[in-house]
Prior knowledge:
- The protein is mainly beta.
Amino acid sequence: MGEAVPxxxxxxxxxADGRYTSRFSVxxxxxxxxxxxxxDPTTGRFGPAxxxxxxxY
Length: 57
């Protein structure tokens, strides 16, 4: 896994409390890996990615 996983860029802005909530749909049930990383669009700086894997039903 790690950085070799293909990325689908989808910037997600945090609210005033620094939180983000969203729902995602998958086309079929099965394994899913979700990756998240910090990105500052102003400077282009970013942090390491964190991943979680689960099975969607």
